[in-house]
Amino acid sequence: TNPSLLILPGDGIGPEVMAEVRRIIGWYGEKRGMHFDVSEDLVGGAAYDAHGTPLTDATMEKAQNVDAVLLGAVGGPKYDVLDFSVKPERGLLRLRKEMDLFANLRPAQCFDALADFSSLKRDVVAGLDIMIVRELTSGIYFGEPRGIIQEGNERVGINTQRYTESEIERVARSAFELARRRGNKVCSMEKANVMESGVLWREVVTKIGETEYPDVELSHMYADAGAMQLCRWPKQFDVIVTDNLFGDLLSDAAAMLTGSLGMLPSASLGAPMANGRPKALYEPVHGSAPDIAGQAKANPIACILSFAMALRYSFDQGAEADRLEAAVETVLADGVRTADLMQNEGETPVSTSGMGDAVLA
Ligand code: NAI
Ligand code: MG
């Protein structure tokens, strides 16, 4: 049977960029004999308009039973007035929570042609290809006790960093599995020098590495030193695995090594399913961009690269993912630009489908 894919285009530019991915999926069927069972459904404001909820139970059920979900973006000014319980973002949050997607993957990839977009020197970032794996469902954002309490004559704000061994084990396994499909190196970041959770993190990651992934090179770094190294010489890394808080900071910083929001893909992975594939949701980092929605200006590359990640990490099609990324690289090297990638006055941007045409060609 063909691998199955649920497409949730969502709102704003979501459907516009997803249309280009659908053409690419069509190309794979026609030219490479790779067929997917594709179904499409509503999420976010689009689902609210049709059903009064940003994600129906039926769509949730479908998402739980496909090999991968590909999402465009949700939200828009039209929905800002809605009650919190039915806001478009809640659709996305429900997907992440019920699929138990504990590993958030944020690649920082810098195509040569766009190296001048970076705030760092060209030779530091050109050709960069690293992956940050952030633990997403535990740690200090969720730990108890939490709250603001009265203590004597002043108030105290409290959050608790808490990680169980099994929570560390599962995200470590995700990182090692990814490394095997990439450069075979994992760098784990914590602050074992000052945090108990960091001590346990380092111990557990080391154990998983030694017992289950002896073929993958493992190193450790304190997260503050890691932040410094990420700006100094990011190409030393392949996969970085870290907790929720440090991952939040490090992945945002790493994203900016590479430039435009319209270029950044992401994925969130959960536990392996019966067929061995991890539960997976792939989506561009950007939102629904209401300021350019409906104008055929959106850059579809972040969404296209999200599909490339699905090819590599859900469908075991690393060579085909390479092919798609190489097509993007070629198009950028040829100077094809959507408006968000323009650098010089007088350049003429291509439309969303113009970019899709170029990648397909
Ligand atoms: P945004 O990412 O939608 O837009 C920020 C800026 O980047 C805008 O100027 C936009 O035109 C530009 N941009 C974003 N993606 C682009 C692309 N593919 N091509 C060209 N330009 C692009 O973030 P913003 O404006 O903060 O949020 C807009 C809406 O999207 C809100 O309703 C927000 O809640 C939602 N949102 C949804 C996310 C998701 O679905 N995962 C993530 C972030 C925001
Ligand atoms: Mg953040």
TrEMBL record:
Cofactor: Mg(2+); Mn(2+)
One GO cellular component, as annotated: cytosol
Keywords assigned by UniProt, alphabetized: Amino-acid biosynthesis, Branched-chain amino acid biosynthesis, Cytoplasm, Leucine biosynthesis, Magnesium, Manganese, Metal-binding, NAD, Oxidoreductase
Enzyme Commission identifier(s): 1.1.1.85
Entry GO MF terms: 3-isopropylmalate dehydrogenase activity; magnesium ion binding; NAD binding
One Gene Ontology biological process: L-leucine biosynthetic process
Site annotation Important for catalysis: residues: 141, 191
InterPro entries (UniProt xref): IsoCit/isopropylmalate_DH_CS, IsoPropMal-DH-like_dom, Isopropylmalate_DH
Subcellular localization, as worded in the UniProt entry: Cytoplasm
UniProt: substrate binding residues: 96, 106, 134, 224
Gene3D superfamilies, sorted: Isopropylmalate Dehydrogenase (3.40.718.10)
SUPFAM superfamilies reported for this sequence: Isocitrate/Isopropylmalate dehydrogenase-like
Annotated Isopropylmalate dehydrogenase-like domain residues: 4-359
Residues annotated as binding Mg(2+): 224, 248, 252
HAMAP family for the chain: LeuB_type1 (MF_01033)
Family, as annotated: Belongs to the isocitrate and isopropylmalate dehydrogenases family. LeuB type 1 subfamily.
UniProt subunit comment: Homodimer.
Protein name listed in UniProt: 3-isopropylmalate dehydrogenase
Organism of this sequence: Meridianimarinicoccus aquatilis
Gene behind this protein: leuB
